[in-house]
């Protein structure tokens, strides 16, 4: 077992850190404060420079616009950019990983390079009002008529449906089917006639969460599909095989630099705050109870990082996760909840005030983190369900009789 980064990996990390120090201007920081994907003018210039360095989608195949590098190199790059609140770095997410795993040659060539450049982006259309955890109960239907599918149904919690170009849509293509059988994935342009996107505001909308807070999404969406007609070429993988197609892409959502950092950066927030000048900071950092708690949180955060590194190492060996992604999706978000609760107790009531209040600490950062930490235990699969996967796939226990 070797926990050490290679000389090449250390060098890469230093290069990325130096690049960020050189190019993270005050104007770019101001832009990222409202939009962590950096789609404003400064962000576009920054992204072009990152592309020129070959630092996007590093581990993706060269023939589809990636760099053909290793998942660990990609992790190092993503970790450094995420740490400064910049999220537009290719890697996991919905869409391209599943297309690389299950798409036709034409789909790979059409979607993957454009995803890397940010010209195409996917929202994930799985959850429905009647089924979130129990996805096998999906009702949204796509009926094939000749060379087209006609889609009718509703999706919920479709985060970024208002800002994406496509929806990665799980539908029932066989109306007689039950549970997982008969589901398919369609890659549907979001501007197809018959699609209506309606906002579903999150607890972090009013006032808006600063960019670097946990989760931090002000909005998710409801999506209504009313006689939406798409060509059969939108199908990803085989008709009726949608469950397996989705699973090939999903685990990549649950692991990676973003997933662990949104929880673990909370430890850094409190340590940085305690180290700042000020009477209150000095009193608190001298308190043995505070020091013990902060040290304990930091240790938990290091465990989260090691779990992520193990997932990266599995991915680097080209192996599949059995329970590891699920275990990480329990530990990191729950660490985030423990950390944000402890921090609000250490800092007292002013840490529970949101931005906009004159007495809020650090522009409401700590209060927003507390709210976002709970969302993070639900999205991409709830921690309860992830525990069940660990019990079954990691511990070999039978399916629970619920
Ligand atoms: C902020 C946010 C963003 C999201 N973004 C997206 C998105 O982009 N695309 C998308 O498709 N979905 C998205 N979701 C939906 C998310 O994946 C679901 O909310 C989640 O799967 C839970 O489904 P549910 O809300 O219907 O709760 P339910 O399935 O009704 O579950 C309610 C509770 O029961 C527990 N539970 C259910 N079944 C079991 C079981 N078998 N064992 C133990 N406990 C169980 C759950 O853990 C949960 O605590 C998002 C959710 C949130 C909160």
What structural keywords apply?
single chain, 402 residues, alpha+beta, Butyryl-Coa Dehydrogenase, subunit A, domain 1, Butyryl-CoA Dehydrogenase, subunit A, domain 2, Butyryl-CoA Dehydrogenase, subunit A, domain 3, 4-stranded mixed sheet, 4-stranded antiparallel sheet, 13 helices, 8 strands
Mean pLDDT: 90
In order across it, which strands form the biggest sheet?
1-4-5-8
Strand content: 5-15%
Secondary structure tally, helices: 13
Oligomer type: single chain
Low-confidence stretches: none
The biggest beta sheet reads: 4 strands, mixed
Q: Report the span from N to C terminus.
A: 39 Å
Architecture (CATH level 2) name of the largest domain: Up-down Bundle
How many strands appear in the DSSP assignment?
Answer: 8
Question: Mind explaining what this structure looks like?
Answer:
47% of the residues lie in helices and 13% in strands. It is an alpha+beta fold and 402 residues long. It folds into three domains: 7-91, Acyl-CoA dehydrogenase/oxidase, N-terminal domain (Butyryl-Coa Dehydrogenase, subunit A, domain 1, Orthogonal Bundle); 122-241, Beta Barrel (Butyryl-CoA Dehydrogenase, subunit A, domain 2), CATH 2.40.110; 255-394, Butyryl-CoA Dehydrogenase, subunit A, domain 3 (Up-down Bundle). The strands form two sheets. The chain has a four-stranded mixed sheet. Strands 2-3-7-6 form a four-stranded antiparallel sheet, with no helix packed on it. The longest helix is centred in the last third of the chain and has 29 residues, at 288-316. The radius of gyration is 22 Å and the shape is globular. The mean pLDDT is 90. It binds flavin-adenine dinucleotide. Flavin-adenine dinucleotide (FAD) binds next to strand 1 and helix 13.
